[in-house]
Amino acid sequence: MSERVEEFRPPQRLLLGPGPSSVNPRVLQAMTQPVLGHLDPVFFKCMDDVYDMLCRLFRTSNKMTLPLSSTGTGGMEASLCNVLERGDTAVIAINGFFGRRMADIARRCGADVHTLEFPLGTAIDPNVVEEELKRHSHVKVLGVVHGETSTGILSPLEELCALAHRHDALIIADTVSSLGGHEVAVDDWDVDICYSATQKCIGAPPGLAPVTLGPRATDAMRNRETPVQSYYLGMADLETYWSNTRAYHHTTPISMMYALREALAMMVEEGLENRIERHARCAAALRAGLQAMGIGLFADPAHHLDPLTTAVIPDGVEDTNVRTRLLDDYNIEISGGLGETRGRIWRIGLMGDSCREVNVLALLSSLERILPGEGFAVEPGSGVAAAQRSLVAA
Ligand SMILES: Cc1ncc(COP(=O)(O)O)c(C=O)c1O
Question: Are residues 317 and 256 in the same domain?
Fold first, then answer.
């Protein structure tokens, strides 16, 4: 007996959460191209393009630069497990949910992990990190999250790189929420290992995790005493597929690679600096609009992460009511807090293709319509007008 299964037809949403961000139709279109074999010479051209454009995005000439077949967590896992061995010392600076995940993974690698906790909503303080590095005879890895998506904070990565190297430690930087939305200069800042994910400021669907390893990191990897415990994420073997050898490692998610290539091409066409400026301009307008409506910001204003704004939910307003109305009545997704901030903050993403002036205005006007019904008085137009002023002044 044959049976009919209904087609799955998802609605067209505006994704203004912490990722995934909305994907441009041009990128989706690229995914409908014929699937090639992963050892087809025509596909190698796609890989070469992805390599070249990832190097431009990371601002690096590192040979070992490639997109892992995984989401951002796979990038985190690969970055840690390729250099850490049982008994190595790692210091992980934590100012939110993803720093804590990094520490968890480092422990699973068998490392002796020392964590440094910073208050939620504040940046990693390099002076405090340096004191911790001084306390140990040899720290192999310093792990930091550049853009902490759980709190909306950007930490000073360039400074953290310099201090890691003063103490002969490798630095691993999570740029899942910052790459493509803020400056990330892998070679100039001397970042040893940097990873990201496709679904945020890069503007492709979730599914690949770009990663780059500099010379210190590749040396550490090659001088390991024990093999990397993960076959799938072992960078040395993966590189044989990405280098001229093109030896099979695992079957590449071909259509995702087309998507990444197209999203990177759009980035090159826009210009990385223009793209970063767009993220700054839209985030400033959003923050101005929220504040004009009487909604407070959670993150330390000196360290705002432009792609992700955290807003304090006004007293008496029910988090899920507002988000449900946004989704059901306006087709807009924003997110609630993660971990300790659940029910206390909203996380609003303006990332990649979602990061547009018109989307800032759409969200603010929707909130102006929803909040009075949830017991929070808002002057109609106040948020939109403040955002407009910010955009005009930019
Ligand atoms: C800063 C940061 N690191 C790591 C991750 C994990 O990425 P994924 O959910 O793609 O595995 C995220 C996801 O939001 C993130 O924001």
Answer: no
Q: Give the pLDDT band (50/70/90) at residue 1.
A: confident
Helices 215-222 and 72-83: angle between axes, nearest 10 degrees: 60
Residue 4 lies in a domain: no
One domain, residues 254 and 321? no
pLDDT on residue 150: 97
Residue nearest to atom 13 of ligand 1 (CA): 72
Q: And the tokens for 121?
A: 């909503």
CA 133 – CA 139 distance, rounded (Å): 7
> How many angstroms separate the CA atoms of 327 and 69, rounded?
30
Q: Which residues line ligand 1 (CB under 6 A)?
A: 18-19, 71-73, 76, 98, 145, 149, 174, 176-177, 197, 206
Residue span of the structural domain in which 286 resides: 271-393
For the chain, the residue count is: 394
Residue range 67-119, pLDDT digits in tens: 999 999 999 999 999 999 999 999 999 999 999 999 999 999 999 999 999 99
Q: Which atom of ligand 1 is nearest to the CA of 71?
A: 10
CA gap 362, 384 in Å, rounded: 8
Q: Can you give the CATH number for the domain in which 53 is found?
A: 3.40.640.10
What confidence tens digit (pLDDT) does each residue in 140-160 have? 999 999 999 999 999 999 999
